[in-house]
Amino acid sequence: MPKINNIKTSQDGADQSARKAADHQADVLPDDVVVDSLGRRLVIGSRDIVTESRIIRMLGDAAMNSAYVAGYVNPAVMVLSIDGEKCPAPKNALEIEARIQLVGREGITAIMQKLLADAERLRQLAEEQQGEEQEVAEVKK
What we know:
The protein is α+β, with helices and mostly antiparallel strands. It is built from four helices and four strands, in the order αββααββα. Strands 1-2-3-4 form a four-stranded antiparallel beta sheet, sandwiched between helices.
C-alpha cells in the first residue's frame, strides 16, 4: 500500500484533535467533506464502477457479508483524502483492512452519519415533491 504520511489515527493526541475539530466545524464544509471526532477532514466520494467491482472481488467470500461491506468497507474506500493526503483505491485485501484501520471508527462514524443525513434529506425532498404533485392533481380536478 502506498505510504500515507502525516495522517492522524485514533491513537494520536486528543487535545490537538479537539481543537482541530472545533476549527473545522467553524468552516463551511463542501458537500463531499466530513470532519470526524478526531478533527480530521475526510474528502469522500464514489469510486468508479470498475474500482468498486475490483474491491468486491478482493474481498472474496467476505463480500457476502453485507454488514461488513456496508458498515466498514464501503465507508472506508469512499475516503479520497484525509487532511489533504490522498488515499488511493486499495489494491488488495490487506490494503482494504489498512484503509479501515486508517479511517477508524471515528471516520466511519462521521461518514455513516453524513450518508444517513443525505438519505433523510432525499426522503424529505421526495415527500415534498409527492405532496406538490398531489396538490396539482387536486387543482386539476
